[in-house]
Amino acid sequence: MIISVINLKGGSGKTTTAMALATAAARHNRNVSVLDTDPQGDATTWAGDAEDAGETLPFTVDSANIGKLKRLRKTMADDELVIIDCPPAGNVVDVACDVSDFVIVPATQGPFELSHALETAESLDAAGKPYALLLLKVENNKLAGNAVNLIRERGASVFDASVPKRVGMQKVIGHAFPSNLNGYEDVYSELEEVIA
Ligand SMILES: Nc1ncnc2c1ncn2[C@@H]1O[C@H](COP(=O)(O)OP(=O)(O)O)[C@@H](O)[C@H]1O
Ligand SMILES: [Mg+2]
């Protein structure tokens, strides 16, 4: 199973989402790995810093280019879950999307953000690619609930669970996650249904 985390915007929470969901998957005894396709290499740096801090992550993070992505299906194990962390732009994003079984689109709740996420949802729909939007950095559960309803009214797919805004999510960069995954446990449970 290959899952890409895609949003054509930096700082939307892609890398954090990839790392948190990989952690959740590992805690559910899944054979999971992260592929870092972002030239900035944030996921790779995160894993290296965690190791230096003596907090080795429960999954591997490897960098990957377009060629590696195209061969991915042939080179991965049958039971493997690969989570691809994407950059905000570039051909590698299209290839990651192409080779994926499922795409996660993190979105924050600003009006521009939400409409961009809906546009992405529309093009994924048009391409017949299974996906779900994921609301991140939520400050108000009621507004998040309204946003989820609005997204569904527009015919787009969205996770029921959303991820609250927490300073702790900035502090965890370069470290292993604590036992509490700040809502990503519930996102992963929904994802398990997709995987199954
Ligand atoms: N739920 C959250 N609450 C608060 N800050 C968050 C949350 N998720 C991510 N962030 C912060 O947002 C910034 C961008 O996150 P990152 O995962 O690097 O995004 P991207 O990979 O899309 O550029 C980071 O500083 C990160 O710690
Ligand atoms: Mg990133």
UniProtKB/TrEMBL annotation:
Classification via InterPro entries: CobQ/CobB/MinD/ParA_Nub-bd_dom, DNA_Partitioning_ATPase, P-loop_NTPase
Pfam families assigned to the protein according to its UniProt record, in alphabetical order: CbiA
Every copy of the CobQ/CobB/MinD/ParA nucleotide binding domain together lies at 3-169
User: What name has this protein been given in UniProt?
Assistant: CobQ/CobB/MinD/ParA nucleotide binding domain-containing protein
Organism source for this protein?
Answer: Bifidobacterium adolescentis (strain ATCC 15703 / DSM 20083 / NCTC 11814 / E194a)
